Amino acid sequence: MSQAKLSIEHISKSFTEKKGGKVTHALLDFNLEVAAGEFVTIVGPSGCGKTTLLKIVAGLEIASEGAVYLDDHRVTVPGPERGLVFQDFALFPWRDVTGNIVFGPELLKVPAVERVKIAEHYIRLVGLSGNERKYPAELSGGMKQRVAIARALANNPEVLLMDEPFGSLDAQTRSQMQKELLYIWQENRKAVLFVTHSVEEAVYLSNRIVVLSESPGTIKQIYSIDLSYPRSRSDHGFISLREKITGCISENCR
User: What phi and psi values does residue 123 have, to the nearest 5 degrees?
Assistant: First the structure.
């Protein structure tokens, strides 16, 4: 039996175009284990299958080959044990902050009194106290993403899946959200599988970084990050690792 929280075993994914029947191979024999409480980030060139992989783990896509296991139980469909955060927030515009956060517990038939407690806890955790009754249209981009993270955590998932969650934010807000995500992760210690195009973001956040090759995506290299938290982007070790991983994506790994 595996000791990993999340096991991704021999995942391959191909798409066949409806017109012409052309086959595109997105992922090829991808294997990865994520331990409980571990923060793992996937980077790689555009079109290498990063988002496709995350969708397969989330149960939103079906792999052509291979399997995904959570605590040795095979997963094939979406479930509350995997919380998903998108780049575009994906909030319900007709629900206020509290309503968005408790959406999952509502589906799980959690009693109303308990849902209130869940909402209050995560609103405090993501720093949104005082904004409980605001709607998405009244929130900044950073606040919307805080709501999205709180909503993903409200089901108490085993794994948090994050697909470019800060990609649409301005640089200052993105930097602040990275700090806040680290705080949330250190408070909860959920396993995190994170996708980003930013190597700097990956080095700032992660325990390990997985570099994918060009399509079809396969693992090119895995880097363990030994830098202590909180990390300084101007630290020599940080800069050296960032340059090494950037080089691995575009050229040769070392």
Answer: -65, -40
Distance CA 109, CA 62 (A): 28
- Cα 89 to Cα 87: distance, rounded to the nearest angstrom: 6
Q: How many CB atoms lie within 10 A of CB 165?
A: 27
The C-alpha atoms of residue 146 and residue 89 are separated, in whole angstroms, by 9
CA torsion angle 51 56 60 63 (round to 10): 120
Which of 249, 197, 192, 200 shows the shortest CA–CA distance to 220?
249
Question: What CA–CA distance (Å, rounded) separates 150 from 123?
Answer: 7
Confidence of residue 32 (pLDDT cuts 50, 70, 90): very high
Averaged pLDDT score across all residues of the chain: 92
The contacts of residue 4 (CB under 8 Å, 6+ apart) are 33, 34, 35, 69
pLDDT in tens, 222-246: 999 999 999 999 999 999 999 999 9
54: which 2 tokens?
Answer: 């995350």
C-alpha pair distances (Å), 116 with each of 7, 82, 120, 156: 34, 21, 6, 15
Selected residue with higher pLDDT from 152 and 15: 152
**Rounded Cα–Cα distance for residues 123 and 148 (Å):** 11
Instruction: Enter the DSSP assignment of 138.
Output: G
Residue at token pair 């691995």: 248
The owner of tokens 């690792």 is: 241
Per DSSP bridges, beta strands 82-85 and 159-163 are: parallel
**Spatial contact of 197 and 166, defined as CB atoms under 8 Å apart:** no
Instruction: Give residue 70's identity as a one-letter amino acid code.
Output: L
Alpha-carbon Rg of the chain, whole angstroms? 18
| Bridge partners, residue 193, by sequence | 40, 161
* pTM given for the model: 0.93
